[in-house]
Design a protein that fits this description.
Number of strands: 19
Shape: globular
Number of domains: 2
Structural class: alpha/beta
Mean pLDDT: 93
Low-confidence stretches: none
CATH architecture of the largest domain: Alpha-Beta Barrel
Helix content: 25-40%
Oligomer: single chain
Radius of gyration: 24 Å
Amino acid sequence: MEKKPFVTLEQVREIAKIYPTPFHIYDEKGIRENARRLKEAFSWNKGFKEFFAVKATPNPYILKILREEGCGTDCSSYTELLMSDACGFTGKEIMFSSNVTPRQDFALAAKLGATINLDDFTHIDFLDEIAGIPETICCRYNPGGDFKINNDIMDTPGEAKYGFTKPQLLEGFRILKERGAKHFGIHAFLASNTVANEYYPVLAKILFETAVELQRATGVHIAFINLSGGVGIPYRPEQQPNDIYEIGRGVQKAFEEILVPAGMGDVAIYTELGRFMLAPYGHLVAQVTHQKHIYKEYVGLDACAANLMRPAMYGAYHHITVLGKENAPCDHKYDVTGGLCENNDKFAIDRMLPEIEIGDYVVIHDTGAHGFSMGYNYNGKLRSAEILLKEDGSFQLIRRAETPEDYFATFDFTGIFDDYASKSFTMDAQELKAKSKA
């Protein structure tokens, strides 16, 4: 199954006249439709709510679209809390899930009335000292060991830095209850980017059984269970996507078999999806600027790992489409690279693609989550613009590209470089040509 871009060559050419490549672009229609599918899949649960993982795509325009679709936000830092507040998310619409948490972060989360998800037993006293214990509180659970589905190891929670052990949960719930907490939540994240419909149902079973055990042992009111993220997407064309409706039915089955008989049928189900919500609805669009013919064939883009670091950091696969050549045979083998002074700055290695020419535009797929947000400024590279492809086919700039002024803005030059900074170093092609002949 071939991945199809949600933008055409004609649209990209039109956008590039105003906003040069590289840029990240997001599909509003796709985002809205996906949010509605998720909500429908869990409509059997009266209290269901998706808390979008802000770290995946921290852009106010995206957050406002999701808020209109009934989502809350999952924040992990002070600035993500500020952004959520600025976008109109209030109180229990915000879930604060962090680790190694600074004092100011807990203070702001408490001030905003966010639901705080504690990552560690020692954070009970830490939060109490800073802001007191709220009536509604959540704790993150780490069952340890390996997490398996059908005897296949999906991940190793025992190696992860997150969460309470079960004995810590039991003791923590008792302490929190004594200090005034009345409504409790349980949260766990046990595997990343799963493309198995069984993941959420298996995780739900673990959390539901844990919730019954905790409720019986401590007498607390379990108000919600947060399945967190982990539902992934098919980055490779040959992979099958998750069926969110089947996933919803699997969680419902576990709910009815475990929680309902225990008298806990009022428990709300929460999710904190980032990748599933946004990744397929974002592209990194770049232009081919160079080709190199040595021991391998290289295609150089005007984008680099500073725009999308997942391939360099994880060896992650991202599909690539050469716009205008969607139906051409993929009979040329290339390494597709950026211009960082790092040999791992490669979007693809030995990738079979159509014959590529300088000036071609390429779409790098599935960058709508953990794409722009993981960018950085190594080599002095500047972060690109973000653009929203609206439902009516028009496009809107939702984050401008960085400039050299942005890069230098946090330095204290104490006036030394004021004159230098005011100079313009932009030259058009004719000026460059004249200068080179001089």
